[in-house]
Amino acid sequence: MDRNIKYKTICRVGIYGDDDINTLSNSQYNIYPSSITGITVVNGGSNYSQSATQINIIGSGSGATVSFNVTSGVISTITVTNGGVGYTNYANIVITSGITNTSSIVAGSGYTNGTYNLIITGGGGSGASGTFTITSGGLASITIVSAGTGYITAPILSFANAPGGSGASATAVIGSGAMANISGIYTNSKRMRFPLNNALNDLKLSQNARCVVETCNIPSITNLAGKYVLLRLVTSSQDKTCDTKKFLNGNPILVSMATQTTVGATNVLYNASEFFYNINVPTNIFSQGYIDMEIEVPSATANIDFLTNKPLNTFFINLIIVDEDPLLTKDLTLAPPIDYNHYNVNMPIRNY
What we know:
By secondary structure, the protein is mainly β. The protein has 2 domains: 8-31 and 186-343, Sandwich (Jelly Rolls); 33-184, no CATH class. The chain is 2% helix and 42% strand. The protein is built from 2 helices and 25 strands. The strands form 9 sheets. Strands 1, 17, 22, 23 and 25 form a 5-stranded antiparallel beta sheet that branches. β11 and β12 form a beta hairpin.
């Protein structure tokens, strides 16, 4: 084989415009900011008190803290005081409470008068304490000394410390029902599917086949402009990959490029060398009848709308499938060999 020729061209594939198949929102996935930027109260709940309420952010990161306001038993606002770092996936807003009150008091009878320690169990929290008073043989009042923390459900109150009687009961009241969501969650990826119309079903590829990018244009759209864009070929591949952003194997990056800052601008990449912007592809890449690609903007800090009015309608990419296996690619009716002279690429040639 000529030293100027490493691969033989098998075919060219031109992909133009946004896809016509995968246009639903579920073709996107959510990415969460590293720092918590804001929290929105969805349901303020009831029976909360300022002093007995706890709000924590639980997730993969650390350091996020909040302040909040309780108005008439309802959590009205939650404000991020420290966004923390390292929240690479969804963080949960955990709202818990201490005992804020007691209700449904039943006096019972036959108890020895006096003041006793209150027995508090269950509810998922800890630290609550109190006393109760027996008057005329029955439960007369309850005093909560410490509200405790972390109660998800109301703990059980027991009056077994008072001797001689029976039938006393009461219900602990805690704040409940509040819900909040982390804001700053945005969508920054879209899966695209392009049908091949059975045009390439008969092509034979070896395990050495590769996909080379010839040209590519990714238009600058709102919240994508001025960002780095990754374009993935969604297919199993012999190239070993590990994506530390999505925590998935496979789907190797085919193109990585910075876009212009102006919305609507074109971002054309020209490439003709098998040493850049190319990945290994499986032998059956064309047999499924379509090509799936995924566009991702890892540095996006706001939602990217890939759906409304099909903003990717000027997207295009031209791919060259090349193969170095002479037994499968010696058919002279195929496209001519790929070489540096043909593409006017001035690069050193390694001796094989």
